[in-house]
Amino acid sequence: MAMNIQLPDPDPLQTPLQGLSRQSLGPLCKLAILDGFWSESDPSFDHTSLPLDTYFEHFEQQCRLALHNWERHDVSSLKLSHLVDLAQMIQGHCQEVSGEIIDLTVRLLLMIQTGGFRQALTPGQVSLVWADGPLLESLAAYFNHHIVLKDSVELDRTFTARNIERIGGIRIVWTSNLIDHLRMRDDRSVALFHHAAYLHYQKDCCDIYPEGLIQETINTLSLLLPIDKRDTKNWFLKKQMELHLDNEAARCRPLTADERKIDKFKFWRGRLVILKQAFDDAKPRTFRQAWLDRRNPTQWYNFWIAGLFLIGFTILLGIIQCIEGALQVYKAYQPT
């Protein structure tokens, strides 16, 4: 049973919520709560015909139950003012905004689009559905849902973002929505999450994401934006300057041969398989794409040797026809 000791009230709403596990609310705390919850701060409230003693007993009981449920977590920074702020948001004109404030906080914390704030989505983006339960469970359910495709592909060194766009004709759409990463929006575009600095920071300080997701996401950037390929680095630098992308995206450490295997990817495997298959199936549609396409060196050399032979043969036929035409003209004017 809680001791009937009153909390000090120099700044009532700055009272730590943890204090209620040992003490009861003092008069000034109660006044501040009434004022914050219902704008009722009449100093004589405890002398009226409607005393709120039982309400504050309920208030303290609920807070203690919550603190007991949170005993494994550090909530030392939680104050009465936080409850009052939330209560004010839930009331009146703020009621419709309160849920969106939580969604906004998630978007800022995790760089994942969620909630019904449609203006936050750009065309083609997806949003995390978080209707109830802990956010961690919703994230785990979302990413585990996508671990379904078991097809195997070879992630060779030609599989880079530059080649995907320049050779495969698949447009790279840079995104700030993590759950959009590597998702093909149609046959001709794919989203790529470029905030590598954020990912490195989250890898060391955040445990909300499913275990291994952040490092695997960094590895996909190493795969598609390899730091040891100068042509890809130069290509990305132009994109970075034009679109204000995170320049750390092309500075992730190179992957080893073993790390490049598709079996090393769990969360992004399905999307990588789909993207690689689309890249492999893409046929050059211009001479420039055909010239850049070195995915199959033997086929590339045979194509261009045959092309050069055809061009040379066409030129030779043209020359022969010109000579024949000249001879015919000459015979017409100089008959034998």
Please provide a written account of the structure.
Keywords: Membrane, Transmembrane, Transmembrane helix. The chain crosses the membrane at residues 303-323. The protein folds into three domains: 12-90, no CATH class; 144-290, no CATH class; 299-336. It is mostly helical and 336 residues long. Helices cover 49% and strands 4% of the residues. A three-stranded mixed β-sheet has the order 1-3-2.
Helix count equals 12
Mean pLDDT: 80
> How much of the sequence is in beta strands?
under 5%
**Shape by Cα distribution:** elongated
| Biggest β-sheet: strands ordered side by side in the sheet | 1-3-2
The ordered string of helix (H) and strand (E) elements is: HHHHHHEEEHHHHHH
Largest sheet: 3 strands, mixed
- Helical coverage, percent range: 40-55%
Number of domains: 3
Low-confidence stretches: 43-49
Count of strand segments = 3
Q: Which secondary-structure class do the elements indicate?
A: mainly alpha
Rg over C-alpha atoms, rounded to the nearest angstrom: 33 Å
User: What's the end-to-end separation, in Å?
Assistant: 132 Å
Transmembrane segments: 303-323
Keywords: Membrane, Transmembrane, Transmembrane helix
